[in-house]
Amino acid sequence: MAKTLEKVDVVTVGLGWTGGIIAAECAKAGLKVVGLERGKERSTADFLRVHDEYRYAMRYELMQDLSKETITFRNNRKMRALPMRQMGSFLLGEGLGGAGTHWNGQTWRFLPYDFEIKSMTDRKYGKNKLSADYLLQDWGITYDELEPYFDKFEKTAGLSGDAKNPFAGKRSSDYPTPAMKKTPILKKFETATSKLGYTPFMLPSANLSESYTNPDGESISACQYCGFCERFGCEYGAKTSPEITVIPTARKTGNFDIRFHANVIEVLKKGNKVTGVKYIDNQTGEEYIQPAEVVVLTSYVMNNAKLLMVSDIGEQYNPETQKGTLGKNYAYQILPGATGFFDEQMNVFMGAGSLGMTIDDLNGDNFDHSDLDFIHGGSISMTQTGTRPIQTNPILPDTPVWGAEFKKASIYNYSRTLNVSTEGASMPHKENFMSLDTDYKDVYGVPLLQLTYNFTEQDRNLHKYLTEKISTIMKEMGAKTVMAGNPITNYDIVPYQTTHNTGGTIMGSNADDSVVNNYLQHWDADNLFVVGAGNFAHNSGYNPTGTVGALAYRASEGIIKYSKSGGSLV
């Protein structure tokens, strides 16, 4: 029988960026907060020996244990969904900091177009630009309304940037720290794209260019350009992460308590209110009930949706009738790119997760789509993230994939190969959704989340267009041979792509087409908040973290307001 604990003001489920921000802001406001984290505690001191590519990048030291909990996947409803047995397409973090520990640090604000995509697209191109199979909708909030929260997140993170993107929304202040170093590799991209008529700028970075103290008094170190960011924690404390910023801030208040190894299996509901959560100590097997005035789901996209589903909160999306909102509008990204083989050697082994230059000329609606068979676009970047040898064996197509010739070519090309890549936007489709699996359960006896997803015609058309543009850029950079990325066909769960999953608990202006309002307050229970990239009504041409951070700050403001007066916030 589950043991009932003392009631608190706020309980958060997960302690990555969203849980950390909610905890810090609510605790500073005097609310008693408990954070439940199913992983273990960790800090900068735990990463002193982190430069181990095999342990962290290949064996996923910081990731979720898929033998205990995973998802099932299928491309369409006619297929049987099968469990994802190994990390591949995306990487599910676990432990204090969540995915905010193993991320690269590329931190964007979504474009003004993103938040009003349905209205702006219809107004400019007509209502039939995309077929009715695409579930395009506005977010229920505008960029201008969200801008103060973007600003707050950037100051918490100490972001480094140059604010020279001509297509970005208006800013209330500059980046807190200057842009990172512009290396010879980035200058090569800058020269080529400028000649082609584009406008390059430094990528906004949470790998800081200089030491910084944020408004809460937390110190972040300067980046050492060691090249071990993605899939790794930072031993210098220079990659802004929740465990070196918002978590310490929350702890200093005396109003915040963390419980590790606490795996939440249900949100408890009575009438039109939630009353708390049930969790299992995954070391002892003991069950607990944590009552709370406010419950905030701050775990990853898929777990937030799963918890609502197993707790029977909200109406599950039905692709046949297109009724229901929970699990709807799952979206991913496309990754057009091109590899260039050069004669000269370059220092590709050095870098940082968000050291790069970008052009936004082909992102959002920054170019005319009147005669194109897709909408939106993608940010095109040259990043110098640190090329690691186990995962990198660049060879030309006619080279054997084993033996002496392979080894010779791989070693030769290692320091003579560059990649220009794109994060391409993904539009929601009626056949791409999340639900509960009817056959498979996790180690706790809870049904697994089932993902039904495939690339669409919109994805394929956009991918082809951007691949051609990128190949032209790579040629202009002086590559002797350019290998363009292959066209996309069916989505595959195995090869790594990005951990930029979105949708399933989308936000909006009414309960008919969204799960939460623009404070991320659940329409069916006003003391339940759901925070994360699951709130995105579609995916953009950027990393999601900056927009997630902004939404978390707005949600925390809403939770504090609710705690004082109750009721719906909109």
UniProtKB/TrEMBL annotation:
Molecular function terms from GO: flavin adenine dinucleotide binding; gluconate 2-dehydrogenase (acceptor) activity
InterPro entries assigned to the protein according to its UniProt record, in alphabetical order: FAD/NAD-bd_sf, GMC_OxRdtase_N, GMC_OxRtase_C
EC number: 1.1.99.3
Domain Glucose-methanol-choline oxidoreductase C-terminal: 428-552
Enzyme class: oxidoreductase
Domain of life per record: Bacteria
Glucose-methanol-choline oxidoreductase N-terminal domain ranges (all copies): 220-330
Pfam families (UniProt xref): GMC_oxred_C, GMC_oxred_N
Keywords from the UniProt entry: FAD, Flavoprotein, Oxidoreductase
Family listed: Belongs to the GMC oxidoreductase family.
UniProt-recorded name of the protein: Gluconate 2-dehydrogenase alpha chain
Natural source organism: Sporosarcina limicola
Taxonomic lineage of the native organism: Bacteria, Bacillati, Bacillota, Bacilli, Bacillales
